[in-house]
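Protein in question filed below.

…
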Amino acid sequence: MHVVVSGATGLVGHPIAAYLANAGHKVTTLGRRPSPLGLAHIEWSLGADCPDLCFADALVHAAFDHVPGRYRGGEGADPDGFIQRNLDGTRDLFDAARDSKIVFLSSRAVYGRPPPGTRLSEDMTPQPDTLYGILKRDIEVEVTARSGVSLRTTGVYGPAPPGREHKWSTLFSAFRAGRPIVPRVGTEVHADDVAAAVGIAILRREADILNVSDIVIDRRDLLSAYMDVTGHRGDLPPRAEAGEVCEMETDRLRNLGWAPRGVDGLLCALRTTMLGALNRA
């Protein structure tokens, strides 16, 4: 298949493009900068005029315009521009792709903040409580109308693309500096497992919505693993309240053959990421 990937230099888009290329697909990236993978590229940004993408068999839309480092609250001081670029710009992009299979990187933010401990299933009515979640929900409606697949992803971790920092670099730096760490527990999934979900989604014939989530991880355990890898010693934060977490049900995706790496995969990724960073220091 010839697959166009938007946002292919991002923390999620980069591994998606790499996965699809390694799987034998022809990949063209779409965005402000070419991919470091050396793939064919079309310069474009959300909200700008879209190139004709009628050549594509599938479009994977991973681009999202937001304040750097923020998704919820990513509109900053410009909510109107945020909507114009991300909602109207996405509609224009889908029009440009015409008959391509659309796979959209949505978010667990569409669920809003349900009562603690709620199991989040794809059949629940979305109740987003942020502009970010509202936009993701509204784009999902467009995707479904075009027989596409929306992947509701949780927090995504993994090695950073070239020239970027991985998602926990600021946390680890604060821990090394001895600054207090706020307790937190949440759900995570490896970026390569998100890419594998995309590989499944582009082959779906019908419209679908799929949760993409893997493990629950407490910052105390994450930083403990960091100490094991680096040899650094510090004061671990208290354990957060695990009962507050709303886990996402992923049976629908797993029944399609998706098999994420679990906690062992997280520990392996931490060793690889941290040892790589230490070797470059």
